[in-house]
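About this split. The held-out portion is used to measure sequence recovery: a designer receives only the structure tokens and must propose an amino acid at every position. Recovery is the fraction of positions where the proposal matches the reference. Here is one held-out target exactly as it appears in the evaluation file.
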């Protein structure tokens, strides 16, 4: 494991042969990790922020993601990269990114976006035995006391398959689909909708790539309209891809679909601005009520 921050306890537990604390040089870390993976090591790279992964795009995009294809399956790159995304820390545009919309466009990469501590444990467990490169994008919210008041959609941290969405809450009147942080927003919105006598199903995508288009379509069919929610901007969000598939597959009509996404602007430091630019539970609730033709939807 490579890391850029203090991990003396892990180094003491596992030894310097398995744990290496690196300078802040993500390009070097990922480049070394690709080489080690190609010669048979399984490597975990832990970076402080997903934003810092942008400096390592050459080894990630041109090397890690392509070696299986270029070698005709003779080589694989069993590499896991962990990075923190947005999480109410208000660190600004250079540290807070919803990077899954960008990374999911790279063929050969698995992009996992956990929504809760148990989901993070399950996706990371699957990543550590996967033969190809996996990027796990974790919200800092998962490691704060605040999470104790947020719902846990997964009963255990057991390994979770990639490309398989999960049903975080059953419901029959409307479906709310989230990824990462927005799953908690959807679950909160489902509670608000219950006060309006609306039963809301909540689906957790779990991975942005592979995207479980058919699985979500099967869960949505017969469950009323759907609201797709993402912190990423609509133009690069997997929800735009998913929404098109749902309509084309006949899971629902276009006028029974709504997307609630983040604004296409850099992350502000101001908590007030951030709340206005990112999807909130009230936004999801209002979108669902409008799809249902309820006057209280605003």
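Reference sequence for scoring:
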């Amino acid at each position: 494991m490579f890391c850029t921050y203090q991990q003396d306890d892990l180094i003491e537990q596992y030894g310097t042969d398995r744990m290496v604390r690196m300078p802040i040089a993500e390009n070097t870390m990922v480049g070394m990790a690709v080489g080690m993976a190609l010669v048979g090591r399984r490597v975990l790279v832990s970076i402080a922020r997903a934003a810092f992964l942008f400096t390592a795009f050459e080894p990630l995009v041109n090397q890690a993601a392509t070696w299986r294809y270029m070698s005709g399956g003779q080589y694989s790159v069993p590499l896991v990269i962990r990075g923190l995304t947005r999480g109410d820390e208000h660190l600004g545009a250079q540290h807070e990114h919803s990077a899954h919309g960008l990374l999911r466009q790279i063929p050969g990469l698995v992009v996992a976006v956990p929504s809760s501590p148990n989901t993070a444990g399950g996706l990371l467990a699957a990543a550590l035995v996967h033969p190809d490169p996996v990027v796990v994008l974790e919200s800092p919210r998962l490691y704060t006391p605040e999470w104790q008041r947020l719902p846990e959609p997964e009963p255990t941290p057991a390994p979770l398959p990639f490309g398989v969405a999960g049903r975080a809450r059953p419901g029959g009147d409307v479906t709310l689909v989230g990824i990462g942080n927005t799953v908690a927003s959807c679950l909160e919105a489902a509670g608000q909708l219950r006060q309006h006598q609306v039963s809301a199903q909540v689906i957790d995508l779990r991975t942005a790539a592979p995207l479980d288009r058919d699985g979500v379509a099967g869960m949505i069919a017969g469950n009323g309209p759907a609201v797709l929610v993402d912190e990423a901007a609509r133009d690069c969000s997997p929800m735009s891809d998913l929404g098109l598939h749902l309509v084309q597959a006949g899971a629902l009509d276009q006028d029974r679909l709504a997307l609630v996404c983040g604004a296409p602007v850099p992350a502000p430091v101001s908590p007030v601005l951030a709340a206005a630019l990112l999807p909130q539970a009230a936004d999801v609730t209002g979108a669902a009520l409008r799809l249902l033709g309820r006057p209280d939807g605003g």
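Annotator remark: Residues 85 and 97 are 5 Å apart (CA to CA).
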